[in-house]
Design goal:
26 helices, 518 residues, mainly alpha
């Protein structure tokens, strides 16, 4: 049994995240000073690098470090590794380089080399604005004003007016960006906790909240960064209110910002990747199959392109988004066979990146995998992955995802013929939905249907399926009931039972009948 220390030692996790080249870089960095070659922190680094699991007792035995010294030596090693990574050419992104130049300007100022400092600041300010590092731009202006206020430079007469005007402009933009970024985070947080609005009342509350905190702005004055936060805010608001056309509109505007400013892809690759993912997610909910497939191909090409750096964060995000969307494409195409290799790759990568993926994204993949197995009629496997969601103790899972995992679990148990467990499951699912305030028309109809099956003659079961199908079709266009169909194709499930066809075949026939997209 692993103890808490083994699970949470930050230094050990950092060392295990280092690539072979980063470890070589660190060794060279440390050995640049002869005195370091025999140091305790270097010995500690070597021992921790060799350990498969953090073992403090073994570590103390293998080094000359006492238990009292260990905390300080670990803290020193942690800082040295981060310093080494900061100096690593492969990690030196634009924001880091700009910040370093600002540090150099501060050194020049403190040495009284004001002209050199101002020359560097002037060049740095232009770069900061070009790369949308406007908070740094504001700091640069502050330092310029400090120097100017000391009457040292004898600069041109309008320089003070120019600095005041630039400060006012950046202050306005930074303030707008701060408000919009807070609103975007707030909307994302609401979606992460609750998912889609469940009632008209909830939608109105979200709408009132959104427009209350949406700041007044002049579109013509907004730059890249401000528009990025604006589009993100509208995107999450549109997801919550299930306006997927608006989702697509704002996701494409988000991506379009980067396509108009390609030099910023390298600076903000995560935002560029996320924007492309939300284009795909919007197309998935709009069921635009051909557009989705083309967008997915483009997305994979983007991920392999030069502007996208190959760091751990990008690698993990790329895995999550590409493979979630590969599963989505299979659902859209009704391809419920031949996916074994895809699932095997997902499982391997989930295991490889388990320390770097949050529970929410893991559970989303588990739900999609469960849906895939439901489509292939592998109900035991479907139930296995649904149990991982239902039995999870994490608080990071969206409420609506948890609710529909319970619903799909009911359907899977029924299809698997596990009638002996159905009554208890119906009761627990009913209680869970009541607790989550998520017992709406669709869920209530399905639970009542399953609850009554035990008393129905086998000859009349098909009639009950038809009755439920007719009832559910009345909910398909209801803006707050239709969210049930985003998680589970209940209509196709019922039709598969009515016509004695596999659900995959029912969905495939619908796909084949679909009119070509315009």
């Amino acid at each position: 049994m692993k103890n808490k220390t083994q699970l949470t030692d930050n230094l050990f996790i950092l060392i295990k995240s280092l690539s072979a080249s980063e470890k070589r870089q660190f060794s060279l960095f440390v050995k640049r000073l002869q005195a370091n070659t025999d140091s305790k922190f270097l010995h500690l680094f070597k021992v921790l690098s060799a350990q498969k699991e953090y073992d403090e007792q073994a570590l103390l035995k293998a080094t000359k470090i006492s238990k009292e010294q260990l905390s300080n030596v670990k803290a020193h090693l942690y800082n040295q590794i981060l310093t080494s990574l900061r100096l690593n050419p492969s990690k030196r992104n634009i924001p880091l380089q700009l910040r370093e130049q600002f540090d150099f300007a501060m050194i020049l100022y403190r040495k009284g080399l004001y002209q050199q400092c101002l020359k560097l600041l002037d060049k740095l300010k232009s770069q900061a604005i070009m790369y949308e590092e406007k908070n740094l731009g504001y700091e640069i202006l502050d330092l310029e004003k400090i120097i100017e206020s000391q009457y040292i430079t004898r600069s041109r007469s309008n320089r003070a007016d120019m600095l005041i005007a630039q400060t006012a402009e950046l202050s306005y933009l930074n303030n707008i960006a701060s408000q919009l970024s807070s609103l975007a985070l707030d909307m994302y947080n609401i979606f992460l906790k609750h998912g889609y609005a469940r009632t008209d009342e909830e939608a109105q509350q979200v709408s009132a909240h959104f427009f209350k905190y949406l700041p007044d702005y002049d579109t013509d004055k907004l730059g890249f960064r401000e528009k990025l936060w604006l589009y993100q805010s509208h995107l999450w608001y549109s997801f919550i209110t299930q306006d997927f056309i608006a989702c697509y509109r704002y996701a494409t505007r988000w991506v379009g910002l980067f396509e108009k400013n390609p030099h910023l892809i390298t600076v903000h690759p995560v935002f560029y990747i996320k924007g492309n993912h939300y284009v795909l997610e919007s197309l998935y909910y709009l069921n635009r199959v051909e557009q989705f497939e083309k967008a997915l191909d483009k997305f994979e090409q983007i991920l392999g392109s030069e502007p996208i750096p190959e760091d751990d964060n990008i690698i993990v995000l790329s895995f999550l988004y590409v493979y979630a969307n590969k599963l989505n494409l299979r659902f859209m195409r009704a391809q419920f066979s031949g996916g074994e290799e895809l699932l095997e790759t997902i499982h391997k990568k989930l295991d490889r990146y388990k320390d770097k993926i949050d529970d929410h994204h893991v559970m989303i993949l588990y739900y999609k995998i469960a849906c895939y197995h439901f489509g292939t009629q592998e109900y035991a496997k479907c139930i296995l992955f649904l149990k991982k969601i239902i039995n999870s103790k994490t608080t990071q899972i969206r409420e609506d995802l948890m609710c529909f995992a319970h619903m799909l679990n009911l359907a899977a148990h029924y299809q698997a013929g596990l009638d002996y467990r159905l009554e208890a499951l119906i009761r627990s699912t009913y209680n869970f939905l009541i607790k989550m305030n998520d017992l709406h028309g669709v869920q209530r109809a399905v639970i009542e249907f399953l609850k009554g099956l035990s008393n129905v003659s086998p000859l009349l079961i098909k009639r009950r399926f038809i009755e439920l199908l007719e009832k559910l079709k009345t909910f398909e266009k209801d803006p707050f009931e239709r969210r049930a169909f985003l998680y589970l194709d209940l209509i196709s499930w019922l039709e598969s039972n009515i016509y004695n066809k596999p659900i995959a075949q029912v969905i495939a026939e619908k796909v084949a009948k679909r009119l070509p997209e315009t």
